[in-house]
Write a structure and sequence with these properties.
This protein is of the alpha/beta class and 218 residues long. The chain contains ten helices and six strands, in the order E-H-E-H-E-H-E-H-E-H-E-H-H-H-H-H.
Length: 218
């Protein structure tokens, strides 16, 4: 077993925060160090415990990433969104999160998302595909992707790290990083998580019956 992932959970809904703390603390590789119910308390606990991940309710103050990084630079930020049916890119970038998932996610989905952000891979769960208006500019950006870039975007959506992609696809790590950077530039996004959100918005990556990404059903 690898190092234990330490967590602080913050959400104004006490039942949600405390129930999630019990469920996640039962995982062998997790340790919940504190539960907060407002922004100042969340930052206080984060500063005190320096957790691996802060699981943050999206209803808490919006400039969360800057505040969290100021008190605990290494802490990853995973956002629980009250409504995940809008624009996922906007929801992610609003707080600069490392991951996003709706509050109606299962405990398994939350645990997997925590592990994903710790691994440095995009973490996003969606309850259902968003009902979005057609975006012609999105089609143009998608058309610029090569077949290899589409393949790698699917693997990123599956939660694969750059290193795993390199190993499984027999590519150098430098080549993978170059492809990923090209994907970000072509899609007009700033992170792998935003690229995965874009893929979700434009149906490049379908959702499976468990509520996660399912590249292989495409």
């Amino acid at each position: 077993m690898g190092p234990v992932v330490s967590l602080v959970i913050a959400d104004p809904q006490r039942l949600l925060a405390e129930g999630l703390a019990i469920l996640l603390d039962a995982e062998d590789d997790f340790a919940v160090l504190g539960v907060a119910h407002d922004g100042p308390e969340a930052l206080e606990l984060t500063a005190e415990h320096q957790p691996t991940v802060l699981l943050l309710g999206a209803t808490l103050p919006g400039s969360a990433r800057a505040a969290v990084k100021a008190v605990s630079p290494a802490t990853k930020l995973l956002v629980l969104a009250g409504q995940a049916r809008g624009d996922p890119v906007a929801a992610v970038t609003a707080v600069g999160a490392d991951g996003l998932l709706p509050k109606d996610s299962s405990s398994r989905q939350v645990a997997n998302a925590v592990r994903a952000v710790v691994d440095g891979t995009p973490a996003m769960v969606a309850a259902e595909p968003p009902r979005l208006s057609h975006d012609p500019s999105g089609d143009l950006r998608i058309a610029t992707l090569s077949n290899r870039e589409r393949e790698l975007l699917g693997l990123l959506a599956d939660g694969w790290s750059n290193r795993r992609i390199a190993e499984e696809c027999f590519l150098s790590l430098h080549t993978v990083r170059t492809h990923v950077q090209s994907i970000l530039v072509k899609l007009g996004v700033h992170s792998k998580l935003e690229a995965v959100a874009f893929a979700y918005q434009h149906s490049l990556v379908p959702i499976d019956e468990r509520g996660g990404w399912d590249r292989h059903s495409a």
